Amino acid sequence: MERYYQPEIETASREQIKAWQDERLVRQVRHVWDNVPYYRRKMEEKGLTPDDIRGTEDLRKLPFLSKADLREAYPYGLVGVPLKDCVRIQSTSGTTGKRVVAFYTQADIDLWEDCCARAITAAGGTNEDVCQISYGYGLFTGGPGLNGGSHKVGCLTIPTSSGNTERQIMFIRDLNATILCCTPSYAAYIGETMKEMGLTPDQIPLKAGIFGAEAWSEEMRRDIERTLGIKAYDIYGLTELSGPGVAFECSAQSGMHINEDHFIAEVIDPETEEPLPDGQQGELVFTAITKQAFPLLRYRTRDICVLSHEKCSCGRTHVKMSKPRGRTDDMLIIRGVNVFPSQIETVLIHQGYPANYQIIVDRVRNTDTLDVQVEMTPEMFTDDMGEITSRQKALVDGLRAMLGLTAKVTLVAPKSIVRSEGKAVRVIDKRKI
Ligand code: DLL
Q1: How far is the centre of ligand 1, averaged over its atoms, from the C-alpha of 323 (Å)?
Q2: 300: pLDDT confidence band, cut at 50, 70 and 90?
Q3: Substitution site in 120, 214, 238 for ligand 1 pocket (most atoms within 8 Å of beta carbon)
Q4: What are the φ and ψ backbone dihedral angles of 355, each rounded to 5 degrees?
Q5: Fold of domain 1-328
Q6: How much of the chain exceeds pLDDT 90, in percent?
Q7: pTM score, two decimals?
Q8: Fold for the domain defined by 332-429
Q9: 217-250 burial by CB neighbour count: b if 16+ within 10 A, else e?
Q10: Contact between 169 and 199 (Cβ < 8 Å)
């Protein structure tokens, strides 16, 4: 039977959801106008006042916010309450440019943790469960967000943070952890380490995993589910909007329900900025309608996905987003062809390789080169050159069929690609340097 953390909200009628959104949007626009001069100026430039926003129908009149605005307004320019009312900051890892610093009031934290509690409950979690949180703790939102959600559900929470993989496995076994929360690449690594320790899925008490913070394919899901003997659920979020729990997967495992009582989602064409209908792929844009301290309106996430209002078998009524296909800023353009790392991953996993790979893009004599290093499993490992050559050729063919591009594939020894305890680094683009 499907369980909900807040059934009256999660299964509310579409009319009710719209009524909440209409009312909260109007209030939020007023709050931002009164308290965030940066955004007020953007509204004024478009000739708008709060009176022009009477409900969700008027959402598209509002100006967008992007990462560039966050950079410009860093650190306090988008904060909507006096700092004395803020109780926390969280921040991104800042691999590209300046870090995003997001602010929270106690009420913001509370709503964020509710969203994470919904995700844990949707994965089958109850107060009988032991929830091990192996996302990083600290500035990264993964650990603190799911920690709070796990407390709200009443799970016995093990805040291991990431790293020290053998100790992770010891805790899972000794303390009977039933739910594991971490990045999918770390889940795969934990699975791999368990296998090396001679452990089979039935010797591991886990039943579910809540994995997100980076893109992962359906193939990788099946792989992790098999190795750990669990059901693996996706969870999505970003620091700018709180952290994990903006959207989460239910038992249907076919897209993530967006918590629409807190976030209005749109998908837009990234070029024309026009909103797109359900089923069409574009950039995800969110308007936070309940957050006080960091109230972003029409924030462009750069994540590419599709929305669906189709009825879900789990009984939840909130719109679903597909797994993000990639980011507008991680899409590689190689010899003019758009390539997402996830497409490469799909080919590898189809041919029985683990998701341990690195994509190296370079430019040699004005031509882009695509080099994919793929790790063999210990079972595949051989020094038979004929066998290696034919495996490499099968991968080159698979990649050509998927991408329409010829890649150079190099098979490398097991364990030679560095493992990630957080978000994996899959792409090295030497062209930018
Ligand atoms: O990654 C928050 C999070 C923590 C989500 C734990 C889920 C679990 P940031 O570090 O700000 O926040 O990175 C946000 O990560 O815009 C997406 O590009 C990507 N991302 C997050 N979840 C998923 C997912 C956290 N389930 C950025 N699938 C987002 C694919 C994801 N990409």
Answers
A1: 11
A2: very high
A3: 238
A4: -80, 50
A5: Rossmann fold (3.40.50)
A6: 84
A7: 0.90
A8: GMP Synthetase; Chain A, domain 3 (3.30.300)
A9: bebbbebbbebbbbbbbbbbbbbbbbbbbbbbbb
A10: yes
